[in-house]
Amino acid sequence: MGLLARAAPLVLGIFIALTYKLYEELSVVPRVPNNIEFYEYWGPAGTDPYADSLDVVPFNISYPRAVIESLRRKLHDGPNLTAPLEGTAFQYGTNSRRLEEILEYWRTDYLDRWDEREAYLNKFQHFKTKIQGLDIHFIREKSDRVTNPKRVVPLLMLHGWPGSVREFYDIIPMLSNRTSDKDYVFDVIVPSLPGYGWSQGTARPGLSESKVAVVMKNLMARLGYKRFYIQGGDWGAIVGNLMAILFEKDILGIHLNMCMASESPSTIVKMMLSSFAPTAFIEKQFIDFYQPIWPKIAQLILEGGYMHLQATKPDTIGAALEANPVGLAAYILEKFSTWTDPANRELQDGGFEKHFSLDALLDNVMIYYLTNSITTSQRLYAESFNSAEMAKRLGSIPTNAPTACAKFRHELMQYPDWILKDHFTNLIQSNHYEEGGHFAAMQLPDVLYKDIVQFVNRIDLTGST
């Protein structure tokens, strides 16, 4: 005991020294790399990396009737689901009784109308083009009645997981059409991220969030835009943020409905400070968006199991979900319940139809099923949350691109403006909304639309193309 007592000051000193050294290293803000590789090839081996066509070709969503009938049989012959525990709703995940109701609707009413749903998915103009060896799918909607190029504003809209381009179907027409609240229209470009939906997945490791940012920049260049706006949530917010870091001068503005703070020690320190004296740092009416912090962290942990799994073993969970419509629906739909409002855990029906139509939710599931993209979509987690990618600390680099943050009450994580401004040094708009969750574009398209227009109206549109 005496030896331990004598050694304690030395051990404490070493611990403090190492902690300070780590803080010093993390406090050094990295610089934007000056050797960004724009032509890194992600296509399959054995093909010519310089043979990419520059063509942008129309794409039509179309599946043989046999594919739909095969899905119907799988839904009919699916497993006998284990009954939920007595008195539970969605606390243990997707409630099997509610899932059985949705599966029955999917198998009958929805698939009976598949021609109608397929036509709906084709309501916008779809295209594909080859970028860095990958077929990249995107929707593009632009008014043909506005011919003045200064009145056409390019907007790249980026989805996340487990979403898809389907999230934006209600907001796209609002943006691309003339309306009284704006004297311009948006050229709306909505790509499927690589490995999602109809965009091809990479054949080799390494296609991380920062590499996806380069692919998206190259897509916009292919479409003739050097400078443009970005809107995104979830992965779309992360990729959009990285684009605003790597290509700051080319980003006219970035609008996010999931604004993430700088990856630095100061963020942690400031979060702790604001938890002790929130009124000193946060406007009183918005304190409960951010505090108390511990229940919000507990909420993240409660909802975060999928992330650890997909960041470490994406192919394992992928194998369980591929060609398995029952498991796929259970896995994806649960997120649209509890990420939209955590109170939905207490509801027997999961609260789905309080916020979405079943057709909209099943459209999204169908995209993952028909394209067999669940595994390739999940690999983005493994490629981004690994030591090599995280060591770059690109998220610690501030960006001065004009920024707007739309903060919806039930988003998974929120940061107050005084912390966000360390990273978004030109944060010119920050609005709080009492309703809404993680899938804002799909849940509250009217609200998100108005927030985007308010932001763009603040900015001089000169030179927007």
UniProtKB/TrEMBL annotation:
GO terms for biological process: epoxide metabolic process. It catalyses: cis-stilbene oxide + H2O = (1R,2R)-hydrobenzoin; 1-(4-methoxyphenyl)-N-methyl-N-[(3-methyloxetan-3-yl)methyl]methanamine + H2O = 2-{[(4-methoxybenzyl)(methyl)amino]methyl}-2-methylpropane-1,3-diol. The keyword Endoplasmic reticulum applies. GO terms for cellular component: endoplasmic reticulum membrane. The active site is at residues 234, 381, 438. Keywords: Aromatic hydrocarbons catabolism, Endoplasmic reticulum, Hydrolase, Membrane. Gene3D superfamilies: alpha/beta hydrolase. One of its GO terms (molecular function) is cis-stilbene-oxide hydrolase activity. It is found in: Endoplasmic reticulum membrane; Microsome membrane. InterPro entries: AB_hydrolase_fold, Epox_hydrolase-like, Epoxide_hydro_N, Epoxide_hydrolase. Residues 57-168 form the Epoxide hydrolase N-terminal domain. Its EC number is 3.3.2.9. It is a single-pass membrane protein. Catalyzes juvenile hormone hydrolysis. Belongs to the peptidase S33 family. This is Epoxide hydrolase. It comes from Anopheles atroparvus.
